[in-house]
Amino acid sequence: MIEFKNWHEDDGIVFHYETQINFSQADINGNISLNELLRITSDVAVEDYRQQGLSREFLKENGVAILVSRVAFHFHKMPRENQKISVVTWEEKPEALQLKRAYRISDENGNLLVDGLSSWIVVNLEARRIMPTKDFKLHKPNDYQRQDGCMKPGKISLPDNLAEVDSRKIRFSDLDSNGHTTNSRYGAFIADALPVEYRGRQPSDFKINYSKEAMLDEDVHILSAETEVDGKKKLVYVGKTDKGNSFEAELYF
Known about the structure:
The protein has helices spanning 34-51, 56-61, 185-192, and strands spanning 6-8, 15-20, 64-75, 84-92, 99-107, 112-124, 129-131, 163-169, 205-210, 219-229, 232-241, 244-252. It is mainly beta. Strands 1, 2, 3, 4, 5, 6, 7, 8, 9, 10, 11 and 12 form a twelve-stranded antiparallel sheet that branches.
């Protein structure tokens, strides 16, 4: 019988979460899908906050929400179907308007698979505005700055030769309890828009930035362009609705 555990280290900051990549979470190549990677890491962050006393319900009662804004991953080796993994996460020193959260994913033998770093915003629900992190008094920040194994989340430069490669309508099953498209679904949108020649290749890096919320029945037009950076192929993706850019992303090969 396989047993999965989760716990905080003695510092109360570093959180460990064990799980397994199941059949339904893998893509056609047997690797974890981009949408499941986004889902797992987001869920682990939510669980970390919950165990610190910052459940979504508690935050809502206090008029705030914490929402993922930007994510960057570096893939040493893709987690595989039926593989037991350990996700370790911790908060890093916040920026003026962004909480920072790091990830390290390893296999059951301790081999490093994925490094990650993400940015999160604190939203005042009444004003619908981003709250400066210094005003988020429900949570004490720390000064950790340990994650240097991946790109930093940041602005994604959009090339001039973007062209539409796919489109889709936001359906009921795409939504989360915040009422907008859940962040992990954008990973599926990107995977569906990959050129055929890239579908069997492992990316080295992935970045995604979330912009305007995509809502029920909105059409999302997926635009893409291929460029080259330092000898690597880079695929840039943008998801557009009538309100503007919903997401921007980069995949490096």
